[in-house]
Amino acid sequence: MEFLCEANQSLLEILRMELGLTGTKEACNNGNCGACNVIMDGVLVNSCLVLAVEAEGKSITTIEGIALPGGLHPLQRSFLEHAALQCGICTPGFIVSAKVLLDHTPDPSEDQVRRWMAGNLCRCTGYDKIVRAVLAAAQVMHAMPEQER
Amino acid sequence: MQSFDYAATHSLSEAATMLAQDGKSVQVLAGGTDLIVQLREGRRQVALVVDIKAIPEVNQLSYDPIQGLHIGAAVPCYKICQHQRIAAAYPGLIDAISLIGGTQIQGRATVGGNLCNASPAADTIPALIVHRATCLIFGPLGLREAPVETFCTAPGQTILAAGEFLVTLRIPAPPPGFGAHYQRFIPRNEMDIAVTGAAAAVVLNDKRTHFISARIALSAVAPVPLYVPEAGEWLAGREIHLENLRQAAEIARAAAQPIDDMRGTATQRKQLAAVLTRRALEKAVERARTQEAKP
Predict the structure, then answer these.
(1) Residues of A in contact with B50 (CB under 8 A)
(2) Residue B84 needs a FRET pair 20 to 30 A away by CA distance; which of A59, A81, A88, B295 works?
(3) In this predicted complex, what is the ipTM?
């Protein structure tokens, strides 16, 4: 993907305003809440704290890229099944965040999940259902062949 | 956000030239987790942001038991924490480095940036101080070195002159009998800024009964990260005994000059300085006692 931008525009701004990828959300815009999470060259980052120019040449995965060819990703399915969202504004960030965790820690403990996602804030759910959804998704993914995750 | 220009540099001298431009306010960009927030909130005014991440020297991350540890100014925290040999050799540093922000911040933030941002509450700086870190600085007159405890001069202010920037942090190899730890008090479990923090590093005698030396430094109790040499010096030659740890903690408490602010009162911070110093010393001693010879 190519885009033009000013030096002072964040990756978040470009994703939403230039590229029309509005799944990534702007909430705090200062690196505290995780609603803007994307994966940049395999690393979970707050896109509000990356200048768009810094993304040149990088591989970016947004929430739009999480679903699998056959349908929802197990994490997405699990969030729905476990009622792990209400208003949904934090949800793309949580799912992207959880995906990075499960990709390298396929069987996390509850403590590991909570600590990993400390940078993702939710105003609605009180977090418990989110944590349960991530742990449940880990079990489902465990049973899937690796290429399909 | 205010308008500014952006330039990515590929060499130390190119960066120094850009940073020394007269009449322009120029700022280094590494991880951006402090700078971008400050620019967006108008707390800093810059005309040019100089991205140093493509300079090879600032990306160095290396350790050997003779040369010690080199952390380039632009190395993101997660890379240091994931480096198994470094994490095994310097757990007292990893204590502090791994505390910055959360997962997402760790993906971008740097120890170099934590130092150069010069917050009184910075977590890595007390840990760097007790590990005897040296700053390698490059500027228009070339390379110079400075002990990390001299780097911060006031909140948000450092010894960097026009055109200068931090290249590397050099930390000596831990001697036999070494142990270190950093811990802090925060309201939540993660993500917060330290209300107070304490770093301690000790070197114990062969029998692990006495201190040969100790270094103690505190965060968030002074305008700059506070090195308390008198607390460590008092322990030199003394027996490892709770009463002696408490005494060193009282020396640290006396040195702390905290303020009241929204994160805590001065009284609470004085109390925390003593308690956290004692706990950091206990953990540092424990690490020194269980330390094995590392390859």
Answers:
(1) none
(2) A59
(3) 0.96
